[in-house]
Recover the amino acids of this structure.
């Protein structure tokens, strides 16, 4: 007797995360067949030889004897207090340890924050392109992600006038990802001030994903969203995964700042959800205080002569020399959002599809990238790569990409 189909929850109907989707599964199959795949689809520093600072590793090991019990649902006090000190150093003076939640990475905290906020039919303003977890965290709760454009011709920086036009009576929150994943854009202060003003005037929760806050190039300035306006409710998200190259520790934080009295019910709902998952990974929390204090080793990697800076330079050089590609130079984070000029290929723009291109690149050149349409954009002529390989490998990757596009052109 055959069993009836076991269907997935309808809550997942519109949830997408193609960064680890069908292309990644095909890459695993190719690896099992003996092929070596260069995986540029995920910002995973440890997979490319990056290591967390040794002092963080020592902090975890030396405190393992304290890590057997559950911690407080918001996290251990030293970790939360270290986040407070970081915020105060950035001019955000109205936070205490009670305003900080430690989570299993920023991803979990985004889900908790949206779950506590949203009802079916609500709307959240999310950038396009976005990190797709943000869209997923909205739609999984029956709400609608309204994407505001961050156009390539504007350097992927949003136009606040366009953003404000999208606000409706159902809009609950405005999301900013700065420095941006997938584009590497770093938003100017005036743009952030205008977005914060929209949030304040329209009574929106201002959500600032700042996981790449210290990962900057060529003098770019990072402006903490919470430092702009203490009269609005700001949620700041940060963590150890990227700047501190400690993805596997799964440690992130969420800070509530600004005007909070009107939001007590919401904040208590976030704490309820944090309590239901008991606590986040305890050993990793002991790395937070060490990470946020002292020398920030990411600066050695992003300055001229550093590995991330060199790889970015290799990517920019390869794109400059390409017959088919262009890119807005990333000013932060660890990604490049590259455009394929399909009008230079047979069939033109109408014939080019980023998903098909990414699959061809994987099958024929053994390079895995994330198609641009994975990031909730209306166009299909971009792809995202990480800047994590060394410069030599990055040059090789773009030589393979150019070779595939040459083959397209020859057809």
């Amino acid at each position: 007797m055959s069993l009836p189909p076991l269907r997935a929850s309808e809550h997942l109907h519109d949830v997408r995360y193609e960064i680890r989707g069908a292309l990644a599964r095909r890459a695993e199959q190719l690896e099992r067949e003996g092929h070596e795949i260069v995986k540029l689809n995920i910002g995973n520093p440890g997979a490319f030889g990056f290591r967390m600072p040794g002092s963080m590793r020592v902090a975890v090991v030396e405190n393992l004897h304290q890590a057997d019990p559950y911690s407080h649902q918001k996290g251990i006090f030293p970790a939360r207090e270290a986040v407070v000190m970081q915020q105060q150093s950035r001019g955000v003076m109205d936070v205490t340890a009670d305003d900080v939640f430690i989570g299993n990475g920023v991803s979990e905290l985004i889900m908790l924050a949206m779950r506590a906020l949203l009802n079916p039919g609500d709307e959240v303003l999310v950038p396009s392109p976005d990190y797709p977890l943000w869209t997923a965290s909205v739609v999984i709760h029956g709400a609608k992600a309204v994407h505001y454009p961050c156009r390539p011709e504007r350097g992927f920086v949003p136009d606040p006038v366009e953003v404000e036009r999208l606000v409706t009576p159902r809009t609950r929150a405005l999301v900013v990802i700065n420095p941006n994943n997938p584009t590497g854009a770093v938003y100017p202060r005036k743009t952030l001030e205008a977005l914060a003003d929209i949030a304040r005037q329209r009574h929106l929760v201002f959500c600032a994903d700042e996981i790449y806050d210290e990962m900057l190039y060529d003098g770019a300035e990072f402006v903490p969203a919470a430092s702009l306006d203490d009269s609005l409710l700001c949620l700041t998200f940060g963590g150890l995964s990227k700047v501190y190259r400690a993805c596997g520790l799964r440690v992130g934080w969420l800070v509530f700042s600004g005007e909070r009295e009107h939001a007590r019910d919401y904040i208590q709902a976030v704490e309820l959800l944090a309590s239901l998952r008991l606590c986040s990974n305890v050993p990793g929390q002991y790395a937070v205080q060490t990470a946020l204090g002292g020398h920030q080793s990411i600066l050695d990697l992003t300055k001229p002569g550093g590995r991330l800076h060199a790889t970015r330079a290799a990517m920019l050089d390869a794109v400059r020399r390409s017959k088919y590609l262009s890119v807005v130079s990333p000013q932060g984070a660890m990604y490049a959002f590259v455009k394929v000029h399909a009008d230079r290929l047979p069939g033109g723009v109408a014939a080019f599809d980023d998903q098909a291109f990414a699959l061809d690149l994987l099958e024929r050149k053994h390079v895995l990238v994330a198609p641009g349409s994975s990031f909730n954009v209306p166009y299909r002529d971009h792809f995202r790569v990480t800047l994590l390989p060394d410069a030599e490998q990055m040059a090789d990757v773009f030589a393979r990409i150019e070779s595939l596009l040459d083959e397209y052109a020859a057809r």
Summary: The first strand starts at residue 38 and ends at 39. The chain has two domains: 10-51+299-410, 54-292. Residues 9 and 140 are 10 Å apart (CA to CA). The mean pLDDT is 95.
